[in-house]
Amino acid sequence: MYFVSTNSSDLDSDPTITLLDEPEHPGALKLWNYWLEKRGDKRVPDRSDIGLTDLSDIAPNLLITEVVEGTTDFRIRLYGSAVAEITGQDRTGKMVSEVGEDLGGDTQNRWRAVTARAAENMAPVILKARGSRPETEHLMFHSVTLPLTNGSEEITQYLGGMFTSYLSEEA
Question: Reduced to 3 DSSP states, what percent helix, strand and coil does the chain have, rounded to the nearest 5?
Fold first, then answer.
């Protein structure tokens, strides 16, 4: 596997994250169900199985990251406009190591822990977390990270979705 994992167990001890068995947000649920459909009887779908036009209604919430061979880093290939609006940055084309430098590395560490978990288990990682910055503390973030192969058995990309709801709407 290209990805040299960081400690995915950090997710289990992070009190700001709730790991889920399945998505609670409708957009995240749509993405997850799409991934399951495209997976079929394979362990993980191939990138060629995914048609972003099939997901046009949630495309602004989508991300695609690609493993950079020989490193523990990822290149962000797609960073949807809704995600850019939430984070205040368009990170398309950037390396994950460049993301969150202004946030003390928490964003990078969390991103790496999530992708490490998805790579180790060759399975989706579904979570929700409360916004941590003053401008997002009223929001709940719903995230789905879905591993993809690219013509081999190795995980080479991740299809992700980030959706928000207001904390006042949370059950």
Answer: 35, 25, 35
